Amino acid sequence: EVQLVQSGAEVKKPGESLRISCKVSGDSFTRCWISWVRQMPGKGLEWMARIDPGDSYTNYSPSFQGHVTISVDKSINTAYLQWSSLQASDTAMYYCARQGLVGTTENWLDPWGQGTLVTVSS
Amino acid sequence: QSVLTQPPSVSAAPGQKVAISCSGSSSNIGNSHVSWYQQLPGTAPKLLIYENNKRPSGIPDRFSGSKSGTSATLDITGLQTGDEADYYCGTWDSSLSAGVFGGGTKLTVL
Fold it and tell me: How many angstroms separate the CA atoms of A62 and A49, rounded?
């Protein structure tokens, strides 16, 4: 069974940097894209970006391009989402999920991580 | 505003059927498969339907999906109180080169 386990909740101040993680187990790490999804408090799902763990090729939503960076460390089967300068508006739950086999048109998200709550407050 | 359009809420009585619509355009639903997700309160989303109408293992056949042109529909029959959740459609947008979701639909089982 494939599992995605995310790092724990974070509380940060505006302007601080942050990196959260998503560890994949139960399958080849490089078979599927890893995507990140934001859910602001009381709001819907927003697709942020995805990465091919094999070669680190990325796609970003225009809404998030330039504000976050995604990466992977293949040696430890882990994907990352990072911010260089957090804003209060980054307060949200962040989910990672696998999104389809690399090299195919599969685009569904499954499975999902449990989520990482990021709170940015002065 | 979300790229895909869903009704904010739907409701029906236990045992009844409900349909949740998802409308898009030629750059997303029109040329990509649609998936549906169920998010129970306080939990991570879960895949319900993929490739328009396929169910992952463990998903009851009370849940079904369809797609026509630039719209998709999730049907839920034999409603149960445990189906109360938020439901999201999702797909890939070739113009944006990005994934997109609908705004979500809150299902209430009266």
Answer: 9
- Contact state of B46 with A44 under an 8 Å Cβ cutoff: no
Q: Could you read off the pLDDT tens digit of each residue along chain B, which spans 110 residues?
A: 899 999 999 999 999 999 999 999 999 999 999 999 999 999 999 999 999 999 999 999 999 999 999 999 999 999 999 999 999 999 999 999 999 999 999 999 99
CB contacts, 8 Å: A62 with chain B: 96, 98
What span, in angstroms and rounded, lies between the C-alpha atoms of A61 and B91? Answer: 13
CB-based contacts of B68: which residues, under 8 Å, 6+ apart? none
Cα–Cα distance measured from residue A106 to residue B25, given in angstroms and rounded to the nearest whole number: 19
Residues B50, A110: C-beta atoms closer than 8 Å: yes
Interface of B with A in 18-77 (CB under 8 A): 32-33, 35, 37, 39, 44-47, 50-51, 56
Whose tokens are 């998802």? That residue is: B22
Degrees to nearest 5, angle at CA B87 with B4 and B108: 125
**Residue A14 · residue A87 · CB < 8 Å:** yes
Q: Provide, as residue numbers in chain A, all residues whose Cβ is less than 8 Å from the Cβ of B2.
A: 44
| H or E stretch at B49 | strand B46-49
- C-alpha to C-alpha distance for A89 and B94, rounded to whole angstroms: 28
CA distance A58 to B1: 24
